[in-house]
Amino acid sequence: MESRHSLYHVLLLILCGLSALCQCSATGVEANQTAVLFVNASEASARKIPDTLFGIFFEEINHAGAGGLWAELVSNRGFEAGGPNVPSNIDPWSIIGDESSVIVSTDRSSCFDRNKIALRMQVLCDHRGTNICPDGGVGIYNPGFWGMNIEQGKSYKLVLYVRSQESINVSVALTGSNGLQKLATSNIVTADVSSWTKVEILLEAKGSDPNSRLELRSTTKGVIWFDQVSLMPMDTYKGHGFRKDLFGMLKDLKPAFIRFPGGCFVEGDYLRNAFRWKETIGQWEERPGHFGDVWNYWTDDGLGHFEFLQLAEDLGARPVWVFNNGVSHHDEVDTSAILPFVQEILDGLEFARGDPTSTWGSVRAKMGHPEPFDLKYVAIGNEDCGKSKYRGNYLKFYSSIKDAYPDIRIISNCDGSSSPLDHPADLYDFHIYSSASSVFSNARHFDSTRRSGPKAFISEYAVTGNDAGKGSLLAALAEAGFLIGVEKNSEAIEMASYAPLFVNDNDRRWNPDAIVFTSSQMYGTPSYWMQHFFKESNGATLLSSSLQANPSNSLIASAITWRNSVDNNEYLRIKVVNFGTITVTLKISISGLDQNSLESSGAIKTTLTSTNVMDENSFKEPNKVSPVKAMLEKVSESMDVVLSPRSLTSFDLLRKSISSSVDTDSVLKSSY
Question: What is the pTM assigned to this prediction?
Answer without folding.
Answer: 0.93
